[in-house]
Design a protein that fits this description.
It contains 5 helices and 9 strands. The chain has 211 residues and is α+β, with helices and mostly antiparallel strands. It has one domain (34-210). Strands 5, 6, 7, 8 and 9 form a 5-stranded antiparallel β-sheet that branches. It has a 4-stranded antiparallel β-sheet with strand order 1-2-3-4. The longest helix has 23 residues, at 3-25.
Length: 211
């Protein structure tokens, strides 16, 4: 490589670096995640929470049914020795980050049932009923989860039926890895589109990895 070629290459490298820095500074880099930042701030007020593993609970049905809402799990190690989670957290936690950035912990499956009754938007048709059930089922998975399970929702398990003037949507998520079992969810909606009953069920158990 001659001197002129080397000089040109050096100038090109410098210009590329400057442009990259300017791109990042002008906001063209990775978009910030406000919901995760809100969660991190909330966790920052709980001493010891940094030992928990944070993961998003993301699903197409959740995004459709609850636009603007974000859900995360915060899990503490169970095996080979369980960690002691700091109050008010438990070993496994489902956290909701609201559109306004405030944070709420959904305590357990009973808490999720109450939350769905309060916050599920009105169901307008069978398609919405199906999506609502799938979103609720995805969230319910996290109360059976220990971080080692994988679930799958068989298409044939998802049903939407009419019982009088009520619409009933049901389905199940089957454990495909990490154990055995399934969880179920049934939602009943009245003629006005209001959710009037939530029925979670099922049971899962770990495989040989924990025996």
């Amino acid at each position: 490589m001659d001197v002129k070629t080397a000089a040109a290459a050096l100038v090109l490298a410098v210009v590329s670096a400057v442009l990259a820095d300017n791109s990042s500074a002008s906001g063209n880099g990775p978009e910030p995640n406000p919901s995760r930042a809100a969660l991190d701030t909330w966790l920052g007020h709980i001493p010891g929470s940094k030992d928990g593993k944070v993961a998003p609970v993301d699903d197409a049905a959740i995004r459709t049914v609850f636009p603007g809402e974000h859900f995360y799990t915060v899990r503490f190690m169970r095996y080979p020795r369980a960690q002691l989670p700091p109050d008010p957290l438990r070993l496994d936690n489902l956290i909701r980050v609201k559109p306004d950035g405030s944070v709420e912990r959904i305590e357990d499956l009973a808490g999720l049932t109450k939350w769905l009754k309060k916050h599920l938007p009105p169901i307008q048709d069978e398609v919405h009923a199906r999506e609502a059930m799938l979103a609720g089922l995805r969230l319910a998975e996290e109360f059976h989860q220990d971080g080692g399970y994988q679930f799958d929702v068989p298409e044939q398990s998802v049903m939407v039926t009419h019982q009088g003037d009520h619409v009933v949507a049901s389905g199940k998520a089957v454990v495909t890895e990490g154990g055995k079992g399934e969880i179920t969810l049934t939602l009943t909606v009245d003629a006005s589109g209001k959710l009037i009953a939530v029925e979670p069920g099922g049971h899962v158990r770990p495989d040989v990895r924990l025996r």
